[in-house]
Write a structure and sequence with these properties.
By secondary structure, this protein is an alpha/beta fold. The chain is built from 11 helices and 19 strands.
C-alpha cells in the first residue's frame, strides 16, 4: 500500500461514484480536500477540511506543505497528468510523498463522442494560453481536440479559423461530458452562433476554403507571409538554416539579430513546445517580429531590446543559436561558452567582413563552412530571367 500523504485525484462529471476504488478511498480518508468549487460540489458527502485554489499558484504548494502531517487530497478535473495542475503540484514533492489517481481525460471522452481515433487527433489546450497558438495545427483534414478557457472560446476560435481560410471547418462543443448535464452544439466556423457552457471541450474538423494558402509547419515559409523591411533571411536560405539548427521538441533557440523574426518563428512552428528568444535592438523590427509571431501562431516568441554579447547575460542556456545580425567573434565565443551539449550553432554572413569572422570561427572550432547562392526567375519584359540574391556564407557546428 502506498505510504503517500498527498493524493492527487482526477475526477469527472460523474463525481465520486465515477472514481476507482483506490481513488474513493483516498478521498474518504483525506483530512484536507483541495479543489475548485465544482470539485467540492462533486464530493460534498465527504467530511474534511476544505480549501479552494489559492492565487498565486505557489501559495497552493505552501498550503499543502504546511499540512504534511495530514492526509491531503487534491482534486483536479480529468487526468491529473495531462494539461493539469495535478502534475505541477506533484513535481514539488518526492515520488514517495505523492500518489496520482488518473481519471478518463476530456480528450478520451471527446474522441469517444466524435468516433475519432484518439491517436490521430491533435490534442491542444487554450486554457490560459494565447488563442493564436492553435494556428500551426490547423491543416486540411486535421482533427483537433481543444480544452477551452470559457464559453467565449468557440466564437474566438471560429473567427481565427475564418482568418486562416478555414471557415468551412466543423466545430463541435461538448459540455459536461460524462455527467447528467452533458450537451452538444455543432456548427461551422463561418456561421458559428452556439453558446456552450463554460466547462466544455471543442472538437474541430479542419476544412480549407477554396483558394486558401495552406502553410506547412516545416521550414521555408514563403517570404510574403512575413511582414518585413527587406532585410530578412530569404525562404531558401531559411530552409537550409533551419535544417542545420535542427529544431527539437522543448528546446530553446537564441536568435541574435532577430529582425522580423522569420527564423525564430519557423523554429517554434516546427517543433512542439519549443521556445525562442530573439535579440533585436531596433524597435520597429521587434514590433514586426511580434506581429509576425502572433499571426503565424507562435505568440510566445520572447523578444529582447538588446545587442549581443552583453544582452545574452542571464538568459537560459540555449540548445541552438542562430546569428543573423551583429556577428562578431565575441558573440560567437559567448554563445559557445553556454551552448548545451549536442547544441547547434549557425551563423550567416553576406558581407566580406562578416565572412572573415566566419572563416576564423571555422579555423578555430571546425564545423561546416558553405556558400549558398539563390536566384529566382523574374519577368524580363515578356520573358523571364534569373534574379540573383547576394550569396550567403554559412558556418555551422554541433557541440
Amino acid at each position: 500500500m502506498s505510504k503517500a500523504w498527498l493524493n492527487i485525484v482526477g475526477i469527472g462529471e460523474d463525481g465520486f461514484a465515477g472514481l476507482s476504488g483506490a481513488a474513493q478511498a483516498a478521498v474518504k480518508r483525506a483530512d484536507v480536500l483541495i479543489g475548485g468549487a465544482r470539485h467540492h460540489a462533486l464530493t460534498e458527502a465527504v467530511q474534511a477540511e476544505r480549501l479552494t485554489w489559492p492565487s498565486p499558484f505557489d501559495a497552493m504548494i505552501e498550503q499543502i506543505e504546511k499540512r504534511r502531517t495530514k492526509q491531503v487530497c487534491v482534486l483536479v478535473t480529468g487526468d491529473p497528468a495531462w494539461y493539469s495542475a495535478g502534475i505541477k503540484i506533484a513535481s514539488h514533492f518526492t515520488a514517495d510523498d505523492v500518489c496520482i489517481h488518473p481519471h478518463v481525460s476530456a480528450f478520451q471522452l471527446a474522441a469517444a463522442r466524435m468516433g475519432w481515433a484518439l491517436q490521430d487527433a491533435v490534442k491542444l489546450t487554450e486554457h490560459g494560453r494565447p488563442l493564436q497558438s492553435v494556428g500551426p495545427a490547423v491543416t486540411p483534414g486535421a482533427k483537433l481536440i481543444v480544452l477551452t478557457q470559457d464559453a467565449e472560446t468557440p466564437e474566438q476560435l471560429s473567427k481565427l479559423l475564418v482568418q486562416l481560410g478555414f471557415g468551412h471547418s466543423r466545430i463541435t462543443a461538448l459540455s459536461h461530458m460524462g455527467g447528467p448535464n452533458e450537451a452538444r452544439i455543432e456548427g461551422s466556423a463561418a456561421d458559428w452562433s452556439g453558446r456552450p457552457a463554460d466547462f466544455h471541450t471543442l472538437c474541430i474538423e479542419c476544412v480549407a476554403d477554396t483558394g486558401t494558402k495552406v502553410l506547412p509547419r516545416g521550414p521555408g515559409l514563403p517570404d510574403d507571409v512575413f511582414e518585413h523591411d527587406g532585410k530578412m533571411t530569404k525562404s531558401e536560405i531559411r530552409a537550409v538554416t533551419l535544417s542545420r539548427l535542427a529544431p527539437r521538441s522543448g528546446e530553446l533557440l537564441w536568435d541574435i539579430g532577430c529582425g522580423c523574426g522569420s527564423v525564430a518563428i519557423e523554429w517554434m512552428r516546427t517543433a512542439d513546445r519549443s521556445r525562442a528568444v530573439g535579440l533585436e535592438p531596433h524597435d520597429d523590427r521587434r514590433a514586426m517580429a511580434q506581429r509576425n509571431a502572433i499571426r503565424l501562431g507562435v505568440p510566445d516568441l520572447h523578444l529582447i531590446d538588446a545587442l549581443a554579447p552583453d544582452g545574452l547575460a542571464g538568459l537560459d542556456a540555449p540548445d541552438a543559436v542562430f546569428i543573423g545580425g551583429g556577428l562578431s567573434s565575441k558573440t560567437v565565443d559567448a554563445c559557445l561558452s553556454v551552448l548545451k551539449p549536442h547544441g547547434r550553432m549557425v551563423a550567416n554572413a553576406v558581407t566580406l567582413e562578416s565572412e572573415q569572422v566566419l572563416t576564423a570561427c571555422h579555423d578555430r572550432h571546425g564545423g561546416s563552412l558553405i556558400r549558398l547562392s539563390v536566384a529566382r526567375a523574374e519577368p524580363v519584359g515578356s520573358f523571364h530571367g534569373w534574379k540573383p540574391f547576394m550569396p550567403v556564407t554559412q558556418w555551422s557546428m554541433t557541440r
